[in-house]
Amino acid sequence: MTITRDHCTTLDANDPLRHFRERYHLPKGKIYLDGNSLGLMAESVPARVTDAVTRQWAEDLITSWNRNNWFTMPRSIGNKIARLVGGGTDNVIVADTISINLFKLLTSALAMRRDRKIILSDTGNFPSDLYVAQGLNNFLADGHELKTVAPEDVIASITSDVAVVMVTEVDYRTARRHNMKALIAKAHTVGALVIWDLSHSAGAIPVDLLGDNADFAVGCTYKYINGGPGSQAFVFVHPRHHATAMPALVGWWGHENPFAFDLEWKAADGLVRQQCGTQAILSLVALDAALDEWADVDMLAMQKKSHSLCQTFIDLVEASCAKHRLKLAGPRNMAERGSHVSFQCDEGYAVMQALISKGVVGDFRAPDMIRFGFAPLYNTHVEVFEAAAMLAEILDKRLWDKPEFLTRKKVT
Ligand SMILES: Cc1ncc(COP(=O)(O)O)c(C=O)c1O
Fold this sequence. Notes:
The protein is globular and about 70 Å long. It has a seven-stranded mixed sheet, with helices on both faces. Helix 1 packs antiparallel against helix 11, helix 2 (45-60) packs antiparallel against helix 8 (281-292) and helix 9 (299-320) packs parallel to helix 11 (381-396). It has helices spanning 5-13, 45-60, 64-67, 73-85, 98-112, 127-140, 180-189, 281-292, 299-320, 348-357, 381-396, 403-406; strands spanning 31-32, 92-94, 118-122, 145-149, 162-168, 193-197, 216-219, 234-237, 326-328, 340-345, 360-361, 363-365, 369-373. It has twelve helices and 13 strands. The chain is α/β, with parallel strands linked by helices. Bound molecules: pyridoxal-5'-phosphate. Pyridoxal-5'-phosphate binds at residues 97-99, 126, 128-129, 168, 172, 197, 199-200, 220, 233.
């Protein structure tokens, strides 16, 4: 069946999530397919941040730590995120970056498995995650090893010498999704722990951390959750590990009584000890406002819409760009994918620059992938239709073949 613009209009008219779009600021003349890198700003954010600056900071000043709940925001926001990832109550906290939180969780997990030296990951993992493990192993200088296998070989490679499996659920390039339940079950049968990176999952696909019996997780808030540039990451610790998980990176925010100013660190209860130091409050305020938009999102409707947007885009691109050498990355089965679509594409960097110049914003991931993120709360099927048509035109007319598109910028 040929997918027409009218068909896409009908799909959008019947979309149960269609009313969310108006809650976000959409830059004029742009089709924004990069919510998997930096999500749109919710319209409610500027007023909340202005209040935090002009009233809370300017007038209430230091009293805001109590009066405006600045000190407990990492926990209250964590509980809002928990709804999106099936984390329950008081098992999720926001703080720092994903990389820093991975360090905390890796050290917590390794200390719980001192007789084992292997951290198992895969070659599709985000490089920073691997760097954190490498840096930690170099520091420990105690025979720890980061073993990376192909993503499809992870489950079979979980042997009884593995201390911790550290994987990203949805591959940042291909969108391939690990089977969380099966992977955790296998790890637990051999006594290994699992740390999940949910950066490309949270706010894109339903996640059930407690239901799948996850040990630990981290995730990003500036992508699908729309928390804003550099907004804090989140950390999940299963309640069965609250008392035992002890990070190597500790500070006064994770002390049992920070304002006693003891000279000796004593762990706060449970998850709170995964905090280290003072957080950027203005970022937390923006994130808190962004999360309020998620309060009534039906996760199954979100997943259905994500599948529909991704499938429509794949079908349109494969039909209209058949004569060009584009190759879909990742599996075709939607249940095994996240909410972005990437194609291997010759001259992919220049093609993406040409698309951006025409108002279709996606990104490029080395070595050769053009990547398009579909945010279920605000992207539409008509946008998908227009983006695919623009891609075909750029390839057909070689509009990418210009010096200004071929020169690489610092951030791709
Ligand atoms: C899957 C994944 N993990 C980790 C990171 C790094 O996050 P951070 O810069 O917060 O450490 C990213 C960044 O985009 C990512 O996509």
